[in-house]
Amino acid sequence: MSPVTIELDNISFQLQQEHRFDWLEELGTVFTVFDQQDSGNISFGIIKHGIKRFVKYAGAQTLEYHGDPQDAIENLKRAMPIYEDLKHEHLITLVDHFEAQEGYAAIFEWVEGECLHPHWSFPPPAKYDNPNSPFYRYRQLPIDVRLSSLDRIFSFHVNVEKMGYVAVDFYDGSILYDFDSDMTKICDIDLYQNRPFTNNMGRHWGSSRFMSPEEFEYGAVIDHTTNVFNMGAVAFALIGGELDRSFTKWEAGIALYNIAVKAIDPNRNHRFTSVSEFYAAWKYART
Length: 287
What we know:
The protein is about 30% helix and about 20% strand. The protein has helices at about 70-85, 125-130, 135-140, 145-160, 225-240, 255-265, 275-285, and strands at about 5-10, 10-15, 30-35, 40-50, 50-60, 95-100, 105-110, 115, 165, 175-180, 185, 195, 195-200, 220. It is globular and about 55 Å long.
């Protein structure tokens, strides 16, 4: 089946089939679209009376999604209480959510920032070596700036843990960075779950670059210790060699390196017992 081109306010994108977006008109003017996700969602930047909003919508058959749009709708609905429970200064702010014609929509405050894993515009290896790539530019920032960025990521996940949740599918594509204000925001926490839960999938949702061994093991417990691994993997992605976790690729000194190595120990019993403990050790090592 040939793709169908849709045009909204002079912004064009393609879907697998026709879909109505009349409901968007009263929200404002579309100025950008994010249509390359494989989650079943399509997102829009809209503006009305000078105020920008980010609109995430499920129900359309996007090019990269090969599932049932109804499943995407249910997943988006299920995510709404997660954003409400985990409300935090470093998380994008949910404004509203509602049924929208053939699907479901969630409205968020607009964040000026760039995704650190823009696979649609800078697929690897361009992500790592193109000077225009947000990830490449982020990695050129001074180490103290990146450590402050990590502080925001870690403090948010301390809150995630406190609220009884586990981070699922958190990776550099969930991080927005504003190079003008040095602001870091977390987005796309739709798959976070109450802890603990059992891995009933085998290979779980997520990027393998950030996943613990238990996220590949059917029947394994996914809990706060899994979150610790995830935070250590994030540290290696942003100030180390990502999957090359040798000290030679690390930019932040031996004390923080040892903490990150402990966090990503394949044996969960050797990791920190919680994200709170991990972050406390991390902050102490920075003093």
